[in-house]
Amino acid sequence: MHLVDLIATLAITQFLYFGMLTGRARMSSGLKAPAMTGDLGFERMYRVQMNTLELLIAFMPALFIAAKYWPPLIAAVLGAIYLIGRFLYHRTYVSNPSKRALGFMLSLAPVAVLLVLSLAGAVRAIFGG
Fold first, then answer.
1. Mean predicted confidence (pLDDT) in 12-32
2. CATH topology of domain 2-126
3. Coil, strand or helix: which one is 116?
4. Who is most buried in 44, 54, 64, 67, counting CB within 10 A?
5. Per-residue pLDDT, 1
6. 98-to-9, 49, 106, 107 alpha-carbon distances in Å
7. Domain boundaries, the chain
8. What is the residue-wise DSSP string for 47-102?
9. Helices 40-69 and 72-95 meet at what angle, rounded to 10?
């Protein structure tokens, strides 16, 4: 379980890092709060941050639930793929949003697999498998 805890901690750290980058992008753009549009660099970084938050909400519980029913190493490896996907998504979205698909899929697919593992594990436990 220690690897799962590490992955979860890294995912939270990654999200906070993206938040810091979003703040820097706002400062360097001169865009004043609460404005959310007007600088392409800020808007891209903000979308990375918000998309990461949207996935993180599903990723975290799915990670821990899957690790409860299956070998934690499986959940940790899927979590590591998620983290790599998020960094790839960040790099591509900020530089050229049309190239973000690989990073997005490397983030979304592990979450989907973790959710399936969570559901299968819970159902199996309920019905005595």
1. 96
2. Four Helix Bundle (Hemerythrin (Met), subunit A) (1.20.120)
3. helix
4. 67
5. 85
6. 30, 17, 16, 16
7. 2-126
8. HHHHHHHHHHHHHHHHHHHHHHHS-HHHHHHHHHHHHHHHHHHHHHHHH-GGG-HH
9. 170
Instruction: For residue range 85-125, list pLDDT tens digits in order.
Output: 999 999 999 999 999 999 999 999 999 999 999 999 999 99
Q: Which tokens in the block code for residue 29?
A: 């753009």
Residue with tokens 């938050």: 53
Please indicate, yes or no, whether the overall pTM of this predicted structure exceeds 0.90: yes
Burial 3-33 (b: 16+ CB within 10 A, else e): ebeebbebbeebbebbbebbeebbeebebee
